Amino acid sequence: MHERVELLKLRGEAVIDFSIAISHFPAPAPVRAAVRAALDEPLLPYTAVGGLPALRDMLAAKLRRENHIDAQAHHVIVTNGAKQALYQSLYVMTDPGDTVIVLRPHWPAYVATAQLLGLHIVLADQPDVVDAAFLDALPVAKVLMLNNPHNPTGKVYTPAELGAIRAWLRARGSACIVDESYEKLVFDGEHHSLAACPDWETLGITTIFSASQSYAMMGWRAGFACAPAVWIKAMEALQGPITAAVPALTQAAAAAAFAIGAVPELLADYRARRDLVVGLFAPVPWIAMAAPASGPYLWGDVSALTVDTVAFAETLIDDYRVAIMPGEALGCPGFIRIGYIADDEATLRRGVAAIIALGDRWAAAGAAH
């Protein structure tokens, strides 16, 4: 959908893009300053495949300080965004045919990556509360994949839920990949890392981080993974022939970004936008949308209107030039995902008005039929 938006824009058409989250914020000033300083250096050499030693040391210190994960530099690999970290983690943790559990709705890359690696994918509907009863009903699996904070629902796992997951991993002998890319985008509650426990390495927990959304650095492709040391060595061996090290400029940007911590002004702006859009949809009878506890997306239940949200999304971009992500792409027909952080407020309001106009049109046509 985002590619279609780009093609329409190349033709000179005005399109509002809610299909992915593209922040209207610039990258933080320290990030831009760090890159400018790196450009003044006479050389930008290749680095070690897993990242500059100083950067890996710094990221390990960040994990200990902010996430309470007992990590050292040899537990960290710097990657080209979260997707490379995901692919390489899943590659070294599984063999073709192994079962991986993905909770639905899901970031599309989880399923696509597992398909590329020939894995058996079990989709399970994520409950409001993850507890022992839910976990015990899951099948035997090599890897459980989690997203905390969650894309697209904005769910933030509680300490009790994380404790139940750790107990399940110990009992089952399953490993876990948890994507914590939105750790700094929490509006309500507090983010806790699954690997914040003494036996995280024994349990086989890999944690993925990205600067893309937390620091408005979508195009920088700056991410990293924290994993048991033996898996990190395997991921380095894999990354070497694929891309080698992350570009030196991106590593400079990553060092500056992950040293910042949270970005309060960005979070306050997103919270205000979240509340605005949820308020605009509140009186609309055919959509149910709760204010998410985190993240750059809104997740709307339109099943009262239609479960064919692919058709809804196609009509919306064809007739109104507004792009959204249909729920089918995330495993849940009858829902739509809205990336609400792009452009200015006036554009945001126009896009929401177009979604409501199409929905009202469909609702009227359904009532007449």
TrEMBL record:
It holds the Pfam family Aminotran_1_2. Keywords: Aminotransferase, Pyridoxal phosphate, Transferase. The keyword Transferase applies. Coiled coil: none annotated. SUPFAM superfamilies: PLP-dependent transferases. GO terms for biological process: amino acid metabolic process. PANTHER family: ASPARTATE AMINOTRANSFERASE (PTHR46383). Belongs to the class-I pyridoxal-phosphate-dependent aminotransferase family. This is Aminotransferase class I/II-fold pyridoxal phosphate-dependent enzyme. It comes from Pseudoduganella lutea.
